[in-house]
Amino acid sequence: MRFFIDTADLDQIKEANDLGVLDGVTTNPSLMAKAGISGAKNIEDHYKKIASIVEGDVSAEVIATDYKGIVAEGEYLAQLAPNIVVKVPMIREGIKAIRHFSDNGIKTNCTLVFSPGQAILAAKAGATYISPFVGRVDDINWDGIGLIAQIAEIYAVQMYETEILAASIRNSKHIVDAAQAGADIATCPLHTILGLLKHPLTDIGLEKFLADHRKSNQGA
Ligand code: E4P
After folding, report:
1. pTM across the whole model
2. Catalytic one among 87, 198, 208, 215?
């Protein structure tokens, strides 16, 4: 499973990239606002900066919700950098636009996916990625990881090429469970990636190894 980071914060993107495990970035309008980026020109420049830091795909989300608007905005975003992927909401006009982008060689990430039916429709339209929102499904007391597993099974049976990008990841266990359930990618906040490092027995074990080394090398 590949790792994307789910943020528009450049420092966090650089930190994850420096770790050597980063395969891409996803953003959305809320994450851009959280990073303090506003205004068309600043947003465009910010996408260019992100796309220059990482080699992998960078999802840039359209604001338009009508077909013509999504196509115009998506085509504009796609030419900002070779690794920009156009992020399109799972709505009727979005599906039409995904078909257009797919027919014209522009990569897409269909976002706000909450059901297997939506995942099937996005795959049929030719989406490169779909983003099922694990955390937000859990928030309504449903099963976010179960959704990933169901979509993974359907895509395998039907041999769809669309990749499953598990989104709305809230903790490190979500990453592990998404991998087990068959997600191709998880897009994660930095703290959830770093959380994978942690185990108390690792810390205790390392402390003991170093203490034993110090003891046996005293005065050596
Ligand atoms: C990513 O593509 C999604 O927009 C994001 O993961 C949503 O996460 P949230 O539910 O924590 O806002």
Report:
1. 0.96
2. 87
